[in-house]
Amino acid sequence: MGILSNFPSESTYLFPLYLYPESKEPLGNGNRRSNLNETITDEISKRIGLRFSGDKESNANMFAPINVLDYIYAVLHSPAYRVKYKELLKIGLPRVPYPENAKQFWALAALGERLRRLHLLEGVAPLSDTAIFPVAGTCKVETLRYTDGNVYINDTQYFGYVPSEVWNFYIGGHRPAQKWLKDRKGRTLSFEDIEHYQRIICVLKETKEIMDEVDAC
User: Fold this and answer.
1) Do residues 43 and 92 both lie within one domain?
2) pLDDT digits over 128-165, tens only?
3) Which residues contact 63 (CB under 8 A, 6 or more apart)?
4) Which domain holds residue 42?
5) Which one of 92, 105, 177, 204 has the lowest number of neighbouring Cβ atoms within 10 Å?
6) Co-location of 78 and 149 in the same domain
7) Beta-strand pair 145-147/150-152
């Protein structure tokens, strides 16, 4: 369990993908082992007809812990799954269905990998037609206003071409496109801040598109 604060209700669970032995030697792939339950990996192996490997493999007949993580990550971003298990997700840890076959497993694992890399901001760059910041000024976040695809941070400056579905997109109980700016009210945004927010909008936009693809699997 990872402690975030002194309040028990604000703690969280951590599930490492790999376990490493206690050692003063540098951590490397050679001395780690999978932290996945063997009963579960055996069942996945039986259902998809592939052999489980404790580490990343290039062999098409095998699957690895990272593939299982990506499969789970995709399932948990399924809009249909979130609606179906909405009430259960409020009171306990999510239950993830086993893949039906190898085709579905690899399709969802590929989408999950895309989502994972997106959410780590790997290779994400601002787009020329999304969340543009065209007006010079103080760059101070004062009163937020969303109007016709523009996110105003003060009377004159705004991020343009922000789709309404991205502005109102929820992750958990928050709308990241709104919360990030609200948390910085009264602050002056640096160039790096502006670029970071543009990347966030790009990530949210692509996340929604990928989530729709997940349900098609």
Assistant:
1) yes
2) 899 999 999 999 999 999 999 999 999 999 999 999 99
3) 44, 45, 48, 50, 51, 52, 53, 57, 105, 109
4) 8-119
5) 92
6) no
7) antiparallel
